[in-house]
Amino acid sequence: MPGTDAMKLRKIGSFFVGGRTVTLDGLPVEQRRLAIGAAPRPVDPNGDHVTGQMYVQEFRLAEPRCPYPVLFWHGGGMTGVNWETTPDGRPGWLTRFLEAGFDVLVSDAVERGRSSWSMYPQIYEGAPLFRTKNEAWDMFRMGPPGSYATDAAARRPWPEVQFPPEAFDAFAAQWVPRWVGHEAMTEAAYGALLARVGPCLVVGHSQGGGFALQMTQRYPDLIRGVVALEPSGAPDTAGISDALPPHLVLWGDHIADHPVWTRYRGAVDAYVSALAAQGVPARILDMPQEGMAGNTHFLMMDRNSDALAGRVIDWLAAAAEAAAR
Amino acid sequence: MPGTDAMKLRKIGSFFVGGRTVTLDGLPVEQRRLAIGAAPRPVDPNGDHVTGQMYVQEFRLAEPRCPYPVLFWHGGGMTGVNWETTPDGRPGWLTRFLEAGFDVLVSDAVERGRSSWSMYPQIYEGAPLFRTKNEAWDMFRMGPPGSYATDAAARRPWPEVQFPPEAFDAFAAQWVPRWVGHEAMTEAAYGALLARVGPCLVVGHSQGGGFALQMTQRYPDLIRGVVALEPSGAPDTAGISDALPPHLVLWGDHIADHPVWTRYRGAVDAYVSALAAQGVPARILDMPQEGMAGNTHFLMMDRNSDALAGRVIDWLAAAAEAAAR
């Protein structure tokens, strides 16, 4: 990888895909003060609201070296910030992939970050979930179950953990609320994104990794290679055909110490086996087996994130070359 | 301006400023399904939550031509997306300022976009406001009051309107919910941002313009020039001193047709007069008086956004040069 070379871009921009207008009526009008020093004024929630839209930030290189852009799809309760500067301040995968010659599109999934969210119960059914640091520490496999403490000095991460434990609180600033049951809306937006972008490579993480596998079944003509980082689910094997592009799945360490991840991984690895059985190029990269101990759920933020980016970049470059032949 | 020249960057990254941890307890545990195909599992909202943090995206040029970065602060119910590609697909001010040689930092104000938001009523006091297209059409001065219709073809914009009316629905996809009464929290985050960034130039719009004027009073050593685009409020004149940096305020068209904007502008123009009376370089650019008709509240998205960017860039370059002397 070119390291700290400057990035020469022809475009830094953004757009929205998907979404529809919902008209509300019959709700009460409120009197509210809306700005510093301003007098209260009536606020009427009745009228037209946009819902289901998805924000996409677009980085186009002056001279891309790959014919296909890479789409980064983050996981549940996250935003596209996951791919930017790591919580301990190192360049993230967005930078590394641009340096490697890929155009990059980073989306905030529907309902999250710059994609906005909608009133409940009028448009969304109910309230979202907010992930605590306590739960995340376990779920993201920073340390043994129950090793979180409010006081950072009292936390007990795995001794070999690759995520910088001192940056865990900074990482928590990235988290956003998430709803359950919004899969169809989110998939519709990803479909609109693929239709707009055309042939591409997709890198999805966690819930976004599950979406990436799902959308690859649905749009095998558009997705030319898919990388799922610790996907939290896999689609039905009935949807597999030999028209699917190459698949790569990455797993970090300590899966066996966490029953939820053991279950998720079981389903995903069975899916990868089914892909391979149908002749689809499909590979699992198990980091501990590769000699890298201590990777957490957030592989792209771990201390060895550059090494992992390098593996994924090489694999994607090969997939793109095969697809372009 | 260099037009379509490529942008050579040394850094595309992000960071968070401000925020604190709140510990919740005594709330009920729920059973929820969290991913495609996954089994329901307990979700415990009790524990540690981050609140009050602010997201900042950072674009650093390989060879900036100005010693100070420009900080873009958006308005109420918006995010940093306001400064990116315009809703009708043209390069926005982020691109134009990079092309002009400024490093640029774009924040999402606290509670908005990638800055996330917090549970209510446990952390925030109550529910947010959601702006309808109906209200926004009037408030943003797209057409005469009451000229909005759900059917885009039936809307009646001002004949000379500079905002592309056909892009109004695309623009609505950018809007996010906003809370009232969060000024102190937001100002704390802007203060943390200024402390981290150091000497800089600030461009604020609407509510963000009001914050820009306020923070300039508080940090006259750090803000070397401030531009407020249609600020929706002004700080107390008692805080004015001759140590304040140069101020520029921009106003679009049809202010007199809208009582709320007439009132906001009255307060702001009185503040600018008070600045001038104390010897602070302070200027009002009234677009209709400058021969530009039809500008809306969203000057940086209007059809003449490049011309307006040029005016602001020239003014900021002069302010920066004066400050650096």
Automatic annotation (TrEMBL), chains A, B:
Signal peptide: none annotated. CDD domains: Esterase_713_like-1. InterPro entries: AB_hydrolase_1, AB_hydrolase_fold, Carboxylesterase_BioH. It holds the Pfam family Abhydrolase_1. Residues 68-235 form the AB hydrolase-1 domain. It comes from the Bacteria. This is AB hydrolase-1 domain-containing protein. It comes from Azorhizobium caulinodans (strain ATCC 43989 / DSM 5975 / JCM 20966 / LMG 6465 / NBRC 14845 / NCIMB 13405 / ORS 571).
